[in-house]
Amino acid sequence: MNEIIEYKENIFPGTRDELISLVRSKLSTKRFEHVLRVEQTALDLSKQHQNVDLEKVSIAALVHDYAKERSNDDFINKIKEKHLDQDLLNWNNAIWHGVVGPEFIKDELRIYDEEVLDAVRYHTTGNAYMTTLAKLIYMADYLEPHRDFPGVEDARNLTYHDLDAGVIYQTWHTLKYLIEKKSLIYPATILTYNSWVAKH
Ligand code: GDP
Ligand code: FE
Ligand code: FE
Fold this sequence. Notes:
The protein is an all-alpha fold and 200 residues long. It contains eleven helices and no strands. Helix 7 (114-121) runs parallel beside helix 8 (132-143). GO terms for molecular function: bis(5'-nucleosyl)-tetraphosphatase (symmetrical) activity; metal ion binding; nucleotide binding. Its EC number is 3.6.1.41.
């Protein structure tokens, strides 16, 4: 059953349908459908939590991968134009679409709510400190119904029962997976691990 949230807070200057059209215009069908599943998963997970702004949950989920299909040059230009940390130039789309994505979201969608933008910034690597909103987006992206990895059902059950336990689970498994394939680890990923797994 799809849940439709009516936008009333002017976080995005338009309706949910208008936001959906803008997001759809920048993404492949496959990724657009992922985004809709993340929204529904995040709204569903939100039922376990009080004081969560469902409008922010919907908006953050719908825009979390907004910049994922931009070219490397688009990201490089944005990093330079906005005078972002020059170390970002050493990274790639996997990191950029989360960390630099909010610059496209502000400029093109006129969404400026920093809690929403932080949820996008942290959706790939997590962060040492995350609001409930950021945790919901981080986990919904990991657990949406088409995600299929060994243990996904256990991860879903755990997360519905205890959101922080889900964050710990994802942080540990993602870092383990990246290390096993000898990927470069983005420093924030290590800080997330230290804060959530090692020191928890
Ligand atoms: P998606 O955008 O819905 O596909 O999901 P994510 O934004 O969560 O992940 C994008 C990719 O980034 C995944 O393949 C992750 O494994 C990868 N990733 C997450 N953290 C790091 C990191 O620290 N370093 C690198 N190299 N990749 C990472
Ligand atoms: Fe992503
Ligand atoms: Fe995603």
